[in-house]
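Hi R.,

Here's the chain you asked about this morning:
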Amino acid sequence: MSATLTDRPSTIEEPPSPLARLTREQIDALGREFDAIHDQVYADLGERDARYIRSTIRLHRQLVLAARVTLLLSRRRPAWLAGTAALSLAKILENMEIGHNVMHGQWDWMNDPDINSRNWDWDTASPADAWRHSHNYEHHTFTNIRGKDRDLGYEIMRIDPHQKWHPVYLLQPLYNLLLMGFFEWGVAMHDLNFDAIRAGEKPKAQALEELKAIGLKARRQIVKDYLAFPALSAGLNGVLSGRREARRSFKSTVTANFTANIVRNLWAYSIIFCGHFPDQTYTFSEDEVADETRGGWYVRQLLGAANIDGGPLFHFLSGNLSFQVEHHLFPDMPSSRYAEIAPQVRDVCERYDLPYNTGPFHRQLGTVHRTILRLAFPGGRVRPKPGPYRGAAI
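And here is the predicted structure, written out as tokens:
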């Protein structure tokens, strides 16, 4: 079974696409406006931006150190709770605001030998090279094009009514729960592209090399979180309090690390799914984008993403992917600038009668899970889409 999206016969009632409504001249003009926003920000990048990412990395390392030291005493419940909370926060910060964005090339302009998309690796199961290909290239190039963007349902879920139903999708509400908890492993396996392997489009030798890379990364993650640090806790407590306390410390540190990984995975899943699969987003056939220009690419990114309302701390912990619209328009722009350019993006949307997709976290996530539940069964329809942006509600 493959979850690749394919167009079904036109029995699905489609809302009118804003992309089809714009003239070629309007699309080209819009493209120039978005290019100007990008170039204006890049011309202004400097020390304050470099200071931001370096201080964020420093904060992450301080959180990790505090968490690991606290978890040396994890056999005591207060220390376990404090250490697990700090480690969960550190893993969220490293995954969302640091790893994802550094590997997008957002900080390559600094010419830092370490903080760049070529050398950075992250604390997750997916190898950096594989993720950069499947995410930076495939997803951000072919965003929401049915049959091209493998991130639509991650090859295992039916999340668009254009997708042909298969009985296996009856189970997707269940394996969606597994994906939530073990999201990093789902992303790692997704990078393999099983459809290409089955079709013979990816040589078996290449697939084996990629599988080996996943295995090496998985071993590193497992050893770090479930052997090395628990053994360190056990050794210290064994010296201080004996063998029994050593065993208790080992087990409590394992559960703390496991919990922190689950918390990080749940958060990453929720932010990413809210940015891509709520009711507001559009998908596109290959015919619709056959002659796509730079301006058309911008419009597709705008229509295929959705933001999440929130305050500065929420945006920070989401890796600023709560500004998913801005991220898809400018994936190489430092994430710390998305909040600044959001008013300019909304202004463009208002002048060109385009939607600006945003909503509260609970509503965005609720529509995602409703879609996953409904499309587990045959049929389904395209949900209503938002109208043109008309400014913030008063």
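One quick note: Residues 280 and 385 are 5 Å apart (CA to CA).

Cheers,
M.
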